[in-house]
Specification:
By secondary structure, the chain is of the alpha+beta class. It has helices at 4-28, 34-99, 104-114, 121-142, 155-163, 174-177, 188-202, 216-219, 222-234, 292-308, 312-323, and strands spanning 147-150, 167-173, 206-213, 237-242, 256-260, 264-270, 283-289, 310-311. The chain folds into three domains: 4-76; 104-140; 147-323, 2-Layer Sandwich (Endonuclease, Chain A). It is built from eleven helices and eight strands. The protein starts with a helix and ends with a helix.
């Protein structure tokens, strides 16, 4: 709408134009009567007013046209982005269906995550960290990259044991897994892991484990033999090996790892040393290795250690002979 400033400017311009027109007409057309002079000045003033009005209308029409153009472009961008998002979402859900994961669990995750109250900041931050962790894990598995957990993992090992359907081949260093008072195997984590291994064996999963002792004397201790027997009673194929008898240079590079289905290696890296006050060994990092060349290396390493190891029955027989 016109402002008072615009109206005042038009009135002033019209008056000035009329006055100037009158004096010009009076000086140029002095022979003509005054009525004609007044009419000419009024006509020119009207022309000036109409020109100003048309100029303002043109500016407004141009502004409206520009606004409509911008609105149309903005609407087009929004629609294009919406269709692209919809198309991408449709493609992702179709890929989920083909992958076997299914869309229900993803929809449930999104729905539940979006239902957290915005004022519950702690829950939001916690859920965000959990989702970020899962996203990184999936991305690394997709790209065959390593996934590293700082410290001793709990969930990966148990979930993989639940998910495996062919084989579990594991290397256990007694300095890491045995420790004192049964070490890992008598803890809550160890007991759950043993139970899940038993469940996997009942599904037809071949499970083998090589216990690597620090020396020959440790191999004949009651604690060591009992832990081995504990596994064998669950159906795990058990062999034992003195680290000093490892083939080649393998004894110099011993580390715990588990190969699931010959497709993924679960590895833990212990601290190189421990203090006299530190009874359990500290796990610095846990790593999931998906790169197939490196996984094949772990499979080959396990096969070499398995062949070099001694069957548990032979160890028990030799121990009994030693006692007699």
């Amino acid at each position: 709408m016109p402002t008072w400033e615009s109206i005042t400017r038009k009135v002033l311009v019209t008056i000035v134009t009329g006055v100037i027109s009158y004096f010009l007409a009076n000086s140029v057309l002095s022979e003509i009567n005054i009525a004609f002079q007044l009419g000419a000045s009024i006509f020119l003033s009207g022309v000036a007013l109409v020109v100003m009005h048309l100029t303002e209308v043109d500016k407004r029409l141009k502004a409206v046209e520009d606004g409509q153009t911008q609105h149309a472009e903005s609407t087009e961008r929004m629609l294009r982005q919406g269709f692209e998002d919809f198309s991408r979402a449709t493609e992702i859900f179709a890929r989920l269906e083909k992958s076997g994961i299914g869309t229900e669990v993803v929809l449930e995750l999104v729905e539940n995550a979006s239902s957290i109250p915005t004022d519950d900041e702690l829950a939001l931050r916690f859920v965000q960290r959990q989702i970020n962790g899962v996203a990184d894990l999936v991305k690394n598995l997709t790209k065959n990259a390593d996934t590293v957990y700082e410290g001793e993992d709990r969930d990966w090992m148990l979930d993989l044991t639940c998910s495996v359907n062919k084989s579990i081949d594991a290397i256990s260093l007694t300095k890491v897994d045995l420790g004192v008072d049964g070490g890992l195997w008598l803890t809550d984590l160890g007991q759950r892991y043993l139970q899940l291994q038993r469940d996997a064996i009942s599904r037809g999963v071949t499970t083998r484990r090589v216990f690597i002792a620090e020396n020959a004397e440790q191999m004949i201790t009651p604690e060591f033999v009992e832990i081995c027997q504990m596994h064998r009673r669950l159906g795990v194929e058990v062999r034992v090996l003195d680290m000093n008898d490892a083939p080649g240079t393998l004894g110099n590079t011993m580390f715990d790892f588990i190969v699931f289905d010959n497709a993924l290696s679960y590895e833990s890296m212990p601290a190189p040393q421990r203090t006299m006050h530190q009874k359990p060994i500290i796990i610095i990092t846990t790593r999931l290795v998906k790169d197939q060349a490196r996984v094949k290396g772990r499979v080959k390493r396990f096969a070499e250690l398995w062949e070099a190891a001694t069957d548990l029955d032979v160890l028990i027989r030799d121990r009994q002979l030693t006692k007699t």
